[in-house]
Amino acid sequence: MMNLIFPAMVIISFASAIATGRMAELSAAVVTGGSAAVDLLLTLVAVMCFWGGVMEIAEQSGMTKGLSRLVSPLLRFIFPRLRKEKYILEAISLNVSANMLGLGNAATPLGIESMKRLQEINPDTARASDEMVVFVVMNTAAMRIIPTTVAALRGQYGSAEPMAILLPSLLTSASALAVGLTVARLGCLFKRRAGKKKC
Amino acid sequence: MLSDIAQWVLPLVLSIIFCFSLCKKIKIFDCFVRGAVKGLKTLYGIFPTVVALVIAVTMLRESGATELIASLFSPVASALGIPEEIIPVAMLTPVSGGGSMSLFRDTLEVYGPDSFIGQVASVLMGSTDTTFYAVSIYFGAVSIKKTRHTLVAGLAADFTSLVLSSFFVKLFL
What we know:
Structural class of chain A: mainly alpha
Shape of chain B: globular
Shape of chain A: globular
Number of domains of chain A: 2
Distance between the termini of chain A: 24 Å
Structural class of chain B: mainly alpha
Helix content of chain A: over 70%
Number of helices of chain B: 8
Largest interface: A-B, 110 and 103 residues
Radius of gyration of chain A: 20 Å
Oligomer: heterodimer
Helix content of chain B: over 70%
Number of helices of chain A: 8
């Protein structure tokens, strides 16, 4: 998939730079994009180290087990085939909890750890498993309960009620999550049937 | 009020983890270092993916491609009751967290946070995450290139957010 998306993005950029006459900006973007990438990675260095360390502590102390027990009814519903994979569910439950608390920086390294554990039971390591698809889709939707960043920005720009958007945000993100998970599930069913026919 | 509470979340979570681990008599610092090394190794693995994606997104934005695509979608948007001014923000949310955040700031500044457009943009920002970033980082970390229908499902969720944000703002605000 990325083998198509990456060139497509570059070629579309080139074509629209011709159309809009922004070739100079596009040419500069290759350089500025590179430094933007390094900026992002520098932030990630600290984040990955710190939360990698904290996760190790939480795991050694047995905290992750407790947490996964707390979130497990929900996860068992979303990942019915992982019911017995406690080791994986622990990592996923940490990622989900961090997302719900709005700790995006913590959620990413925990999510990567979950992916690595999912990869261990993946029969075809070059191809995403059903659980991986569902897990990543879950992470592309916002799960945070309180949209703090948005509310803070609204306050900064002089909103009378920064938190007024709480209820519509919750309903919107819950529906989006439901749609994403449904499409992910349906896609898995469809692909599996198509695969069986070939055999 | 609620944003004051939000400031407490991170320090509180950390303190709880550390107190609990102290009680369990874990060698906290040793564990931390071990985990941090693992984190570094993971980052090394996703480095190329992040560089590729960030550069490609910057190119898309600077070449004017996002605006071009946005103008293509404006008839569809008006049919769905989505304000046209939202489309650039909606286009950027799946690809770039930083980019959409700066556009969101512009939107708040130009239209005001309590205007219809400002509110729809707020709900949209509060209910989506950067789909491309998540897909590339998570699959990059385990070096999987066949991501199957992940992107389709993620974008379906983003589209739902876009349509419903206008709908729910009209309904509640």
